[in-house]
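Hi support team,

I submitted a single chain yesterday and got back a structure, but I'm not sure I'm reading the token output correctly. Could someone confirm the output below corresponds to the sequence I sent? I've pasted both exactly as they appear in my results page.

Thanks,
R.
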Amino acid sequence: MLKALKVARREYLATVRTKGFIIGLVLAPVLMGGSILVMLLTRGRVDTADRRIAVVDRSGGVAATLAQWAERRNQQVARGPDGRRRGPSYFIEIVRPDDRDPMGQRLELSERVRREELRAFLEIGPGVLHPRADTAAAHVAYHSQNSALDETREWIGGQLSTLLPRLRLLEAGIDTSRVPDLFDGSAAEPRGLFSRDAATGRITDAPRRSEAEAIFPSMAVMFMMFIMVIMGAVPQLNATMEEKSQRIAEVVLGSVRPFDFMLGKVLGAVAISLTASGVYVLLGMYSLTTLGLAGVMPFRVVAWFFPFMVLAVAMFGALFAALGAACNDSAEAQSVSFIGMIPMIIPSFMMMPVILAPNATFAVVVSLFPPFTPIMMLMRLATPGGVPAWQPWVGLLGVVLTTAAVVWAGGRLFRVAIMMQGTPPKLQNLVRWALRG
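Hi R., thanks for writing in. Yes, this is the structure output for that exact sequence:
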């Protein structure tokens, strides 16, 4: 064990003393938060170019009112109090339907969109006021270059949801002007739960919630865990491969057992990750406290972050070190790296379902699957509702057992492969070496 610690010390100092480690330590949070910074800098910077929308109204009663509402919107929204434009103006061009050649008319309007004479064109079916009578004739189609992500389509949809009920009431002889707030709605404000103050016994008000508070903590711990594994565990693949190909491993193994050699490299990776994560966590807590946002990140997650991070780096570090020992050059190392990367990448695909329903069966199952537990359990712990108290302990136990198994199997693979030259790292060979030693 003493020799393993000496190897760990060598690995740790050889990394943290380099300029690359310092640069990576600075750049990692910058890259992670770069998208957030760009969003903040570009917030409010919108395209203010005029948008002309052609409307083919086969119902005969929608386009004119829609044009009036667009003009009213332009006066109220498109310009701010200082007279500067703060949004695009919408201009409705009413086009008479061509019932003799509707497809030709649609093609002509599409060409106008392609020539950028129009932002889009809207086609309203003749039965839009009575959709139950003829669903086929009640269609409303919005055509543009990128209609699925077009904010103009969203505005038109909102106007139609108000306009069509008004037209139906007018058709039925009901004067909507007598009830001006008939179609006004109220959005449900996101709030937390009421609680009782243990010291005073008073019931405290329910805090207001936001989407940022619900999503940011989970995403932050996911990226933090991912970065720590990338910084500590992944480099073991190329480092071990280079030591093998340059015959450095043969010299080291003259005084250290193969398992102690691999264990020292894993412990060095853990020490590197602890150093980097300690810096990030302290700076993060200080920044949130200084900005008055201490409540955004539940600090109970920090207590769980370090044990899960240590185990994750040890588990993946042993895996990458063993894979590196089986490789003879960088091409082989690149080809087998996906074996270790897949369990790290898959949790990012399941991020949103877990954040939206952290205590659903799916979220519980994937967070208790050991390769995913370090990331998925921390994401669930960072959600406002938290998780049952027993689940993090069960997840931690599963990761401990899995890490022990991976280190044991990786040590056996490392012992066989580190001195073997010229044998390609085929999957069947890797499995046989890990099981048989």
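A quick pointer for reading it: The mean pLDDT is 83. Let us know if anything else looks off.

Best,
Support desk
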